[in-house]
Structure formats: C-alpha cells, structure tokens
Fold this sequence. Notes:
Layout: E1 15-23, H1 32-45, E2 49-58, H2 69-81, E3 86-89, H3 95-105, E4 110-113, H4 114-125, H5 129-143, H6 185-216, E5 220-225, H7 231-239, E6 256-262, E7 266-272, H8 282-287, H9 289-296, E8 300-306, H10 312-325, E9 333-338, H11 346-356, E10 361-362, H12 371-384, E11 386-394, H13 398-407, E12 409-415, E13 419-427
Parallel strand pairs: 1-2, 1-3, 3-4, 5-7, 5-8, 8-9, 9-10
Antiparallel strand pairs: 6-7, 11-13, 12-13
Helix pairs in contact: 1-4, 4-5, 5-6
Amino acid sequence: MAENILRSTNERKERAxxxxxxxxxxxxxxxxxxxxxxxxxxxxxxxxxxxxxxSQKLERPHASTYIGSGKVEEVAxxxxxxxxxxxxxxxxxxxxxxxxxxLRFGKxxxxxxxxxxxxxxxxQHATTKEGRLQVELAQHEYRxxxxxxxxxHLERQAGGASGRSGSxxxxxxxxxxxxxxxxxxxxxxxxxxxxxxxxxxxxxHRKRYRAxxxxxxxxxxxxxxxxxxxxxxxxxxxxxxDVYVADQLFATLDPTTRRVMLPGSHLxxxxxxxxxxxxxxxxxxxxxxxxxxxxNEADLLLHVIDVSHxxxxxxxxxxxxxxxxxxADHIPVISVFNKADLLEDAEEAKQLLAETDPDAFLISxxxxxxxxxxxxxxxEQLYEKMLPIRVRLPFTEGALIAQFHEQGSxxxxxxxxxGVMIQGSIPGRLIxxxxxxxxxxxxxxxxxxxxxxx
Length: 454
C-alpha cells in the first residue's frame, strides 16, 4: 500500500534544505522565488521543517548532478550548517542525478525532489480505496526507473518507522512500503499490473455511475482550481455540506459529490476534485485518470481562484494549462475568484478580474459574499444560456437526437445515410454531451444528404 516517506507526527520534524533551479527557456508559471515559496508550503504540508534555501540559474541541467559542482559543495556546507536531514530539490531529478547527488552528499542526508514530496503528500491524504490505489501506482511507477541502476542503495536495508536509511536512487522513499526496497523490478511491475487492474475496476464503476447520472439528465458541475483555493469551502457553502477543510495544500484528495438546489428548484450535482499545482507529476495525472474523468465528463466547470493570493494570476494560468493537458478545455467554465473577505484592496481584485476573466464572479465562500449572484450565474449557464452548435449524429445516438429536438432550437436539419446533421442551439449544460459529434461545415460535403433542402 502507499505509505509516506517522512517521519510520523509523534517524532521530531525532519529538517529540509530547499534547492531551486531555473533553467533558461524552460517554461514555468511561477518565478524561481515564488516556486521555492510554494515548495516550502508543500514541505510544511508534508510535515517537514524548512531550515534554509538556495537557488541557481542555469543554461541547462548538469548531466550528472543537475546543479553545478560548485553549487553542490555550497549546498553540502549549508546542509551541514543547518543540520538538515533532507535536501529537497524543486525540480524532478533523473535516476542518474539522484545517484550522483547521493554519492556527493553522503549518507548523512537524503535527496528528495518535488515529485517525491507531492507523492508523499498524496499518500498522507488519500482516504478512499481508489485514492490509495492511485497513489501507490504513481509511487511505484516513479520508483521503477530509479531501481534500474543497481548500486549501493540496493545493499541498504530499510530502517524503522522514520525511514532514515537510504532507498531507491537515494530518494529515501519509505513507501510504497519499506519492504518494497528489497523487491526487484519484475515484482514491482507485477504490482503495477495488479494496481492498474484494480483501478480499472473502480473506473468501470465510475463509468456506470456517470452513465446513470446522464440518463437522469441531472447536470454535473466540477469544481477545479489550484490547491488551497477554497473549493471544499465553496462546496460546503453551496450544498450545506461538511467536506473536510484545512488551510493547507492538498487538504482534500478524493473527489466528493453533493446535491445542490439552484434557483427555480433545479437540481444539479457538484463534484469537488483534487487541486492542481504547477509541475504536477505526470505519474499522478496518469494514475488519477479515472478521477480526472470526473472533470472531463462534467457539464460545467467552476474554476476557483484564491483572489487574495499574491500569485493568483499565475495560478489561474497554471490551472488553465492543466485543463488543456487533460483535454478538458472544451467544457464551459465559470471563473470564481474566492476569498474576497481576505482582500485589503478591492481595486486590485477588480483589475485582476478585468485582466483574466471580466465575466468572473467575486465571492467569499466563507462569509457568503457574492454566493447568490454565483448561483444565478450557474443557473443561467446550465439552463438559460443557449450555445450554437452543429453536430452530425449517427442514428445509433437516438437519445441525443431526441434531446436536441426536445431541449434545443433547430435552424437546419439534414438526413444522411447513417445519421443526421443538426445545426442550432442547445442549453449550456448539454454542450459536452454533443462534443464528440461536432460537425464543421465544409464547402463540399462528401456525404450527400438523402433529403436535401429545396
């Protein structure tokens, strides 16, 4: 099962020294200093005590140690001076980097990168069977290439609960399971195959549940946003629920769905999803595919932004990029700038809204400010706003054809050999259901209509 890499809470906190690197021409949402500040918050969430930091700007990572040899000596001296237990890199390190850095720094400290840290936080916060399976899969897939290089770490034995002894590639992983340090790649691959099968079973259950929701025609709204933007607080306010809330990164991990009654007695389902973050590990995106499908299958996205955060604009862009990465950027979005109660200057918030999304809502989920206007906006998007669309539906999609006739407005319809082309408008909540059948008009139709208009 997925386990944490760090000390348990009843022991003293491990001391972490942070290392940030800015690579020229490598895209990054946050500046180097801001990224290090976020890394410090991640370290705090994982239960580490940050004792210092340093940074370096490079044309490209050094082949062996990622940072320059002079920087390695500097970090080693600073880690010794601050009594650091862990050297925490803000960048993902390759197996070779981990191996070489561990050799340079010796056994007195462990080398951990940002990916390892985020995987550990996810392991701490996963509470459902699905969440634990997904985290363990991500951990194993991250560890596998780092076990490929047989070197001294394979001769070490796993330590006690604190996980102080070395591990795969010098990362110091205490999970997924200390005894896993002694298994070979074949056993890990077998475990990965098993986990994927188990996750697929859960995914199939989710698919059946989503199909049932679609048949009920109850619209689904997914809350997305940067971690700690206040999504769970917003869900609690909308649904009068009691989803766990904490002022820390990744406080909630497993998706939570609640019923919400909108104005006019319209029922819809709101789903709180895992928070995004810059440099979100690709292993997590892959492992959490079935969970992220909750976003892709939603009728509407509420993009929640912490308007009081000094990097709100950058976080907004990071989430937009992640939505594009998981192919959810075609779904209608309402931007919700949350935590208005923490603002000292309302004018700055207005300027931020104007620069990012003029149609956004400014609210405080904690105090209720702006909530009625937000509900009305959601109601308009789902039930009142008609969006233009042209689709080519096969006759096997009879339910969608009927739905367009019943709830849409048709401007043009043409019958073809295997289906029908409909052009018109449909309610915003239905747009994603027709997305796979969008038909772009062309000057020459290869499939001539059976009953062309006169």
